[in-house]
């Protein structure tokens, strides 16, 4: 039978999912001899050796079987402590926690469990590119509000039947950390509309000016997402957690049993060790890099100082797609186009999760492209 | 704010997902002092040490970052070879292969990508409990046909608009291996109706009488699922692969980018080593256990000789729920009720993936319960 005569009929929900934007940049990049890469969305440092050792120990101890669906009890207890002492979430208990396979799996469970076709969602923008993808997959309707919003600006959504409100703080792609006033306004809106408030805190440790606040510290219906991938440089190991009201955690756990089964067993033991690891020297390094990028580019570009994560979202004068092609051709510089994070076509995202040499080359190339 | 006043409104698609059956057995079991467990759905032997060592090497080599969405090229190439030489699938190429996080993730991607609300599915029954769960989540309609079917029996489905045909062979829960004639009939039906034919071959190596055939060896539109969990005792490490027509593999890869991102990196390197591992002594051990169970129970129960996997599906005279409660109370014996795999309430599933001592105690207890 010839493949070419086959008609592949796919489900409607995934029509139009597209990864071409980032792929295009990577394909272009793969043709370069000596590229400067400022596009990478993960830490440049290796996973700390005590965490690696914990993984080997778990393997040698035979921790290769299914774990409990919701995660190993040791990790859930340690996470409850972390949410309490690290995030000020006094009500955190193991029963409220689900351990899952990375933040993207957390989205999968949450949107799958919570969103019906036609439900309305509010996204703080510029936003992580997966939020609209999930809203699309599950047939929701998306509204957005800019991350610089004043609390009063939320009034226009107060009479909507919102189902989900979601943001990342610190933000991918801007590095913005939402203020307490903004978070309070979002929690109020969630309370008024009955929406689920999902706080994606995967970059929580990358908080250069001690501005980060967990909304869960004052709003007990918050759904708080916490990751290991970025914090401990273990993106490929697939580990994150969800802290939610207990009935939600139960439902998500059931859904996990039918989808992901459990987070990878060995990774869970590594996560337990990770929570004991002091990452402050890594954070200091990134703070220095954040300052360097800001000082180097502030006179050349319209740019807000990143407060967290490891990104700058930079305004450019031409179309983002054209700019990234020009950056590759003229400077062998790899960037991410802004349109995957926002409706504007006049931004690019850079990452300063990089060795100094690559970063310095990249930033001076970028300065010259202005 | 009080939790108890909250109304949690969930998406319709997950209403009624339920794990209470298996949980009930486990809860009962947790009260026992010296239980005999024949309920376990995973191998009792440890993951072979060369595979463990490969995991440690990968960790120490810093393989903790995201991999390519579809899997590391080394593993995809090795899998293509495995599908060719192990399964007789001559057209297997890396481009047709997606590496994902366990078979359940493969189902997640496939049903998500292929099934629209109202689409019809045919399931060979008794069936793995996740098939109906996924059909339910995505709003499909399920038909079933008993695994003992004659090819002519499929005629009644020939004019249906089937979207998915799915089975596991060797079967969980019965150990049945579908014959070549049956597989040909299923492939014909798929061809006639335009359905996707999904062959779940996670137990392929547990083939005690050399009866196993991959439908993909003669049907090039087959979607073949292959796992590492059961074969190499690495259920907690989350690794499997999908071999599909290239356009389908592309779509599933895009969907993976938005959901699972990639299979765990370290596990992928372990998978590469696993494919070089000779498991024949483990399989011989299970064959001996299979024979022992059959000989011990054939005069007490109506029972078909399991041909593969590590299960027997045993007919009982009372209701399965009552029987498993009686087994726990009278014999401290843990079983799985059959109703989660079939419409009949007169079966139980036992697993012989067990040490001899536990197995012998369990089988003699079971014989006494007849």
Describe the overall structure.
- Chains A, B: Keywords: Aminotransferase, Pyridoxal phosphate, Transferase.
- Chain A has 370 residues and is of the alpha/beta class.
- Helix content of chain A is 37%, strand content 15%.
- Chain A contains eleven helices and 13 strands.
- In chain A, helix 2 packs antiparallel against helix 8 and helix 9 packs parallel to helix 11.
- The longest helix of chain A is centred in the last third of the chain and has 18 residues.
- The relative contact order of chain A is 0.17.
- Chains A and B meet through helix 2, helix 4, helix 5, helix 7 and helix 8 of A and helix 2, helix 4, helix 5, helix 7 and helix 8 of B.
Continuous helix count of chain A: 11
Q: How far from one another are the termini of chain A? A: 55 Å
Helix content of chain A: 25-40%
What is the count of β-strands of chain A?
A: 13
From the structure provided, what is the oligomeric state, counting identical versus distinct chains?
A: homodimer
User: Cα-atom Rg of chain A, whole angstroms?
Assistant: 21 Å
CATH class of the largest domain in chain A, please?
Alpha Beta
Major beta sheet summary of chain A: 7 strands, mixed
Tell me the strand order in the biggest sheet of chain A.
Answer: 2-8-7-6-5-3-4
- Domains of chain A (count): 2
What's the gist of this structure?
2 copies of one chain form a homodimer. By secondary structure, chain A is of the alpha/beta class. The first copy, chain A, is 37% helix and 15% strand.
